[in-house]
Amino acid sequence: MTQTAVHRSIDAIWRIESAKLIAGLARIVRDVGLAEDLAHDALVVALEKWPQTGIPDKPGAWLMTTAKRRAIDLLRRDKTRERKYEEFGRSHPLYTEDDVDLALDGEIGDDLLRLIFTTCHPVLSREARVALTLRLLGGLTTDEIARAFLATEPTIAQRIVRAKKTLSAANVPFEMPAAEEIKDRLSTVLEVIYLMFNEGYAATSGNSWVRPLLCREALRLGRILAASAPSEPEAQGLVALMEIQSSRFKTRADANGDPILLMDQNRALWDRLLIRRGLAALAKARALGRPLGPYALQAAIAACHAEARTAAETDWVRISALYEALARAMPSPVVELNRAVAISMAFGPQFGLRLVDELSDEPSLKDYHLLPSVRGDLLLKLGRLDEAKAEFERAAALTRNERERALLLNRVAACSSPS
User: Is the pLDDT of residue 159 over 70?
Assistant: First the structure.
């Protein structure tokens, strides 16, 4: 294997293992920022050694063992923490490669869920909680988080740095909060899991359209959370949304990894088990007797697609009404953009275009590639090819995902006047 291939493999391993690694280390050193530093130290060692020695059979265990040795060295050097080091040495012997994976796996109350609740502590602002958790747990870059927030990258980077310092200064314990405290943090935890799933479902950047492992981890955590908070309709709603969206994974990209749009997907290949699970979770949310929140409403929209046997049978009038309710429950320019798409499908592209044009001066959408992409699609349907082409070109310039850029450039070509 070439050195370039090894580095690509290490990058893939890091994306898969980093969250578990940081969570396991945070349980040991009780400091989220320090845990992240130790994890990156282990990554640096891997980048130095693995091109010569080869990638170990259990790379996650290797990284954890290396990071724990670094932790011990650090504690030895820190004279003011000698007592803590002695306690650590007695209670946390070095894992072998065979049992590290077992120690880091688990269900309810596992290290990853503890990490979410730790980084979603009320001592931090909502924005800081979400940004820090996405960085540590989701492995998202500051650029990816910035685009999820429609914010600038330096702003997000500063939030993350300040959040780690705040948690350390406040000595926030690395543990699941008491039952009465869970509810106070639940909305932020749900938001983090939701954004994790979204990044996996449509990657912000890179050469992959989807990141299934990130979606799978978000869904796993969502299921755990819903089981531990059965009376919370939004926990059920989020799981319902993720189950139904996950059912489409086999059809979201072709054999070459290129995107397949929703209306072009082969619905016979959608995973019916995941759809049934999603519909059951949505029924649980509804049965709790409270108005549907943003996640349950999005799940209801996803259910409309899942229940339509063909794209032509989609109930776009109902979807438009659900987006209207979502816009009231969670006001957002992105929700309004999606509502415009639904209205265009239900009542015609001219009505959708009118709504999209009202969003053209929205500052938060200035660099959001889906705004010109949607506008281009509506213009194309209206036969305004030159205008549509310009919008698709702008969208292609704004996106950071290579697969999506190729799709948009294909749409540019489709708008070209025949010679």
Answer: yes
State CA 404 to chain mean position distance.
17
pLDDT tens digits for range 321-366 = 999 999 999 999 999 999 999 999 999 999 999 999 999 999 989 8
Neighbours of 150 (CB within 10 A): 16
Hey, where are the domains in the chain?
A: 230-314
Predicted TM-score (pTM) of this structure: 0.73
Q: How far apart are the first and last CA of the chain?
A: 48
Give 366's contacts (C-beta < 8 A, 6+ positions apart). Answer: none
Tens-digit pLDDT profile for residues 268-277: 999 999 999 9
For the chain, the maximum distance between any two Cα atoms, rounded to a whole number of angstroms, is 80
Count Cβ atoms within 10 A of the Cβ of residue 166 and give its class: 0-12 exposed, 13-18 middle, 19 or more buried.
middle
3-state secondary structure the chain: CCHHHHHHHHHHHHHHHHHHHHHHHHHHHCCHHHHHHHHHHHHHHHHHHHHHHCCCCCHHHHHHHHHHHHHHHHHHHCHHHHHHHHHHHHHCCCCCHHHHHHHHCCCCCCHHHHHHHHHCCCCCCHHHHHHHHHHHCCCCCHHHHHHHHCCCHHHHHHHHHHHHHHHHHCCCCCCCCCHHHHHHHHHHHHHHHHHHHHHHHCCCEECCCCCHHHHHHHHHHHHHHHHHCCCCHHHHHHHHHHHHHHCCHHHCECCCCCECCHHHCCHHHCCHHHHHHHHHHHHHHHHCCCCCCHHHHHHHHHHHHHHCCCHHHCCHHHHHHHHHHHHHHCCCHHHHHHHHHHHHHHHCHHHHHHHHHHCCCCHHHCCCCHHHHHHHHHHHHCCCHHHHHHHHHHHHHHCEEHHHHHHHHHHHHHHCCCC
The percent of residues in the chain predicted with pLDDT above 90, rounded, is 42
Instruction: Say if residue 316 is exposed, middle or buried (CB neighbours under 10 Å; 0-12, 13-18, 19+).
Output: middle
Please say if the pLDDT value at position 50 is more than 80.
yes
pLDDT tens by residue, 60-96: 889 988 988 888 777 666 654 445 444 544 444 433 3
CA separation for the pair 306, 385 (Å, rounded): 32
Give ∠ CA 74-77-81 in degrees, rounded to 5. Answer: 85
**Residue 23: per-residue pLDDT:** 80
Give the pLDDT of residue 110.
Answer: 65
Residue 77 has a pLDDT of 66
Q: What is the pLDDT of residue 104?
A: 35
